[in-house]
Amino acid sequence: MPTFHDPTADSREAYEAIRGLAHATIFIEQPHEAYGVILELLGGVRSLQQVFDQLAAMHERHQGRAFNDAGDQLAGMVDAFTAADRLHETAAIIRRAESLLDAAAQAAGRIAWHPAEPAAPEAVNRPAWVNIVFLDGEEADRVLDLIDREGSTAGVLYLSQWDMGADTVDDAIAIGHTYDELPSSASDKTATVDAYTMIYNPSLGHVALYRNPDELPSLTLLEAHQHVEIGPPRRAQSDKPPAEQPAGRHTAPPARSWFTPEPITEVAEQRGLSR
Q1: Can you give the residue ranges of every domain in the chain?
Q2: 163 contacts 157 by C-beta, under 8 angstroms
Q3: Residue 249 DSSP code
Q4: Whose CA is closest to 60, among 32, 85, 95, 27?
Q5: What does the alpha-carbon distance between residue 229 and residue 223 come to, in Å, rounded to a whole number?
Q6: Res. 8 pLDDT band, cuts 50 70 90
Q7: Sign of dihedral through CA atoms 125, 126, 128, 134?
Q8: Can you give the pLDDT at residue 238?
Q9: Residue 229 — φ and ψ, nearest 5°?
């Protein structure tokens, strides 16, 4: 707190306050606060001008008591006179600074600061692939038999019944069934049909379907889909080595998917396609 009577203590406190202000103004988040800061500084500059004039006057008034370290009064008086002269010059410069600062305060006072634009949402890292379904055991055997009889396209069409669109993508992301690269081994077979990639392994007895979360199946694939009847498994599950992937998330295709009549209509309308 200022003492109003101890120039040494008050000057030290003024220095600390200005040093703190220098740090505080490195980054001002709310620009409207700057106007108040400028007004306070304008008052401070006016007081600072007065301080320099008063210090100059003190050197003039006590000039007769000035000596240098060797006891030479004349040299001390010359230095006192020089100090007073330079302090008056400093006060004159401060008066110029006061005029400029006053103009800055008036301009700042006319600014109507608008709220900042909302920050753009951070980009979410989307996985390259999400797992639509993974089957093993008897369920996988049925699909593998279907692939043997009718080809990989039939297998993809059958497995795509598990694809519920955005819901499937959200579920896969939530439980961590996402991949930057397709999880396949040297013994796996791969088939890509439209937006889907199927990875299957007849020897290990598992089959899985994947899709890029931002890629949708074409309307042609949607309309080409038919329910595929599959027969009994080609072998009992006890004859197969255990799979090294997580168990299938479903035991049967969902009752409703992109490939039932209602979703086909919805997808066509969303894409602006007539049926």
Answers
A1: 31-109, 129-270
A2: no
A3: S
A4: 85
A5: 18
A6: very high
A7: positive
A8: 36
A9: -80, 130
Q: Which two tokens stand for residue 98?
A: 């006061």
Q: Check if the beta carbon of residue 91 is closer than 8 Å to that of residue 49.
A: yes
Q: Which element (helix H / strand E) includes 201?
A: strand 196-201
Q: How many beta carbons lie within 10 A of that of residue 60, not counting itself?
A: 14
* pLDDT tens digit sequence for 117-165: 887 776 667 788 999 999 988 889 999 999 998 899 888 988 888 888 8
- Cβ distance 199 to 207 under 8 Å? yes
Confidence of residue 216 (pLDDT cuts 50, 70, 90): confident
- The secondary structure of 103-151 as a DSSP string is HHHHHHHT--PPPPPPPPPPPP---SEEEEEEEEHHHHHHHHHHHHHH-
Whole-angstrom distance between the N-terminal and C-terminal Cα of the chain?
Answer: 82
Question: Distances in Å between the alpha carbon of 141 and those of 29, 209, 215?
Answer: 64, 15, 28
Backbone dihedral region for residue 272 (phi beyond 0: left; psi -120 to 50: alpha; all else: beta): left
Cα Rg of the chain (Å, integer) = 41
User: Cα–Cα distance between 212 and 98 in angstroms, integer?
Assistant: 65
